[in-house]
Please model this.
Amino acid sequence: MKTIKILSLITIVFWANSCKDFDELQNDPNRTSQTHPGLLLTNIEAAIAGTSVNDDEVVSTFNVVSANAMLASRMIVFTDGAAVEQYYNWQRNTFDRYNTLRQIAKMEEEADRLQLENYKHLALFLKSVHILELSKTFGDVPYSETLKTTENIYQPAYDNQEDIYVQVLDDLKAANNSLDPALGEISGDVVYSGDIEKWKKLINSYTLRVLMSLSEKTGNTRLNVVGRFQEIVNNPSQYPIFTSNDD
Model:
């Protein structure tokens, strides 16, 4: 009986010491949970397939023609393996851009932690590009409630496409007006090497492109296509745009 009591006590002690909070088990002590936002920016701008964390596909913001499209168009003659696109075996489009939006959200988080405001302003543009590409493909998609698992939102509502466009146009304007060299250097930028003026030209020129795509919606007062267009082209000092191929 005494032996049983001793063994029971030892078991209880080991059991108590082995118990850990579930949330604590989610943190891998061998992996960092913090980084500089510039390190995230590089991959967001020019992600390389197969190098993203946990094998989630991070879609490059500036990747215009994918290898899949080139395979489907027979622009690539040789590959080291068969791809479904080579045999016209297309499937549904993907939501991989949400993985990139997740990386952008992390960049914002790290920028907020280190008080590097320009990364947060640049994130407005980057998010706009990806959500518009998703919306152009699928129509109504989740946006306002995405990436809010910390608020216990695991099934985000779908946003109306018009609401997405209005939000994007507002965010693009805010990005242009907020980016400021005085707010710190942008490192990790493989597109413009942190040149704020060039980023503003891109943001405003991209905005004009979005507005041109809405040319049949000029009667929509919420979108205010004509007013937004005139605001940019009539005020180049505040809203610079591309003026040559150098941009």
Q: What stands out?
A: Residues 49-55 have pLDDT under 50 and may be disordered. The radius of gyration is 24 Å. The longest helix spans residues 117-138.
